[in-house]
Write a structure and sequence with these properties.
Helices cover 42% and strands 23% of the residues. The chain starts with 5 loop residues before the first strand and ends with a strand. The strands form 2 sheets. A 3-stranded antiparallel beta sheet has the order 2-3-4, covered by helices on one side. A two-stranded antiparallel sheet has the order 1-5. The chain has 90 residues and is α+β, with helices and mostly antiparallel strands. It contains 3 helices and 5 strands, in the order ββββαααβ.
C-alpha cells in the first residue's frame, strides 16, 4: 500500500494569488509555495494520489515544456523539502 501524505496537525494551508502559504502554528513559521509547489502539494493531499505518480502527471499536464523525468525530480525535491521542514506526515 502506498502511504498517503498529509499535513502535520497544526499546519494550516491557504491559497494565495502567487501559489500557497503554509503556517506552522506550533513554531509560528510560514512558508510560501510557488504555483508549481502548490500544484504538487494539492495533488498529494488529494488522497487519490498514487504516491508521487499523480503529482508528476499533474505537472506534465499543467506545464507543456516539462517532461516526466524533470517533473519527478521536482516532485521529489518539493516533498523532501516539506518533510525536512516537518510539515508532512504519512
Amino acid at each position: 500500500m502506498i502511504p498517503v501524505l498529509a499535513l502535520r496537525p497544526g499546519v494550516l494551508m491557504t491559497e494565495t494569488e502567487y501559489g500557497m502559504a503554509l503556517l506552522d502554528q506550533k513554531s509560528a513559521e510560514y512558508w510560501t509555495l510557488n504555483p508549481t509547489a502548490a500544484l504538487v502539494l494539492r495533488t498529494l493531499l488529494d488522497g487519490r494520489a498514487r504516491g508521487t505518480e499523480r503529482a508528476v502527471e499533474a505537472l506534465t499536464t499543467q506545464y507543456d515544456d516539462v517532461d516526466a523525468d524533470e517533473a519527478a525530480k521536482d516532485v521529489d525535491s518539493i516533498v523532501g523539502e516539506l518533510r525536512s521542514a516537518g510539515l508532512l506526515t504519512t
